[in-house]
From TrEMBL:
Recorded GO MF terms: phosphoglycolate phosphatase activity
PANTHER family: PHOSPHOGLYCOLATE PHOSPHATASE (PTHR43434)
Keywords: Hydrolase
The keyword Zinc is annotated on this UniProt entry: no
InterPro entries recorded: HAD-like_hydrolase_sf, HAD-like_sf, HAD-SF_hydro_IA, HAD_2, HAD_sf, PGP-like_dom2
Pfam families hit by this protein: HAD_2
GO biological process entries: DNA repair
Official protein name in the record: HAD family hydrolase
Length: 217
């Protein structure tokens, strides 16, 4: 029986693609580059903002990353102002979270987004008592796909990894859940397609949040 659900944030719990695309496009514009469309942004995110900036620079033509250090600072400043730009929960997420709370399931968020920005996003879209723990970048655990954050969360909740479901929408998330010894749930409404997710052979693949409820019945 599962006692804990750990969710990735961007592309899993929250639709943040407009915020991310808008922010990285503004950062690239600072250096005279064109915008980064949502389709490419979906491919560039998932491994923390430093990788996002690196990939966006290469995409924009800065293959030697001559602007990298400055671009990190520019992006951080821009994203601080725009992290909640047009963000919203995915359809069915609120209902799933309510269902899990009724079942007494522990609920955590594990993201590679900066801790402060992650908390700001969650506070904007959800009531404060939805989540038992939020772990982001900057609190002393390795970023995903390292499983340290997921394992720390399980330990905090006093549950075994085998009693946890790990939800995510990218290859990074699939690796995180697998490395942590947790059953992984690949969601197809996020930033990567079903074909990519299937290569990791997750325990479950769902196309709507309600499709996972049956495992708790």
């Amino acid at each position: 029986m599962y006692k804990c659900c750990i969710f990735d944030m961007d592309g899993t719990i929250l639709d943040t693609i407009e915020s991310l695309s808008h922010s990285i496009s503004l950062a690239m514009a600072h250096f005279g580059y064109g915008p980064v469309d949502e389709a490419h942004t979906k491919q560039f995110v998932g491994d923390g903002y430093k990788k996002l900036v690196e990939r966006a620079l290469v995409y924009s033509g800065d293959e030697t990353l001559s602007h990298y250090e400055e671009a990190l600072l520019v992006y951080e400043e821009i994203f601080e102002e725009n992290c909640i730009y047009k963000i919203k929960p995915y359809e069915g997420i609120l209902e799933l979270l309510g269902f899990l709370k009724e079942k007494g399931i522990k609920i955590g968020i594990l993201t590679n987004k900066n801790q402060e920005r992650a908390e700001e996003c969650m506070d904007t879209c959800f009531e404060s008592d939805y989540f038992d723990l939020i772990i982001g970048d900057g609190i002393g655990v390795f970023l995903k796909p390292n499983p340290e954050g997921a394992l720390f969360m399980a330990e905090t909740f006093h549950v075994l990894p085998s009693e946890c479901l790990y939800f995510g929408d990218t290859n990074t998330d699939m690796q995180t859940g697998i490395h942590a010894g947790m059953d992984t749930v690949a969601v197809t409404w996020g930033f990567r397609d079903r074909k990519e997710l299937e290569t990791f052979q997750p325990k479950y693949i769902i196309d709507h949040p309600e499709k996972i409820k049956y495992v708790f019945e």
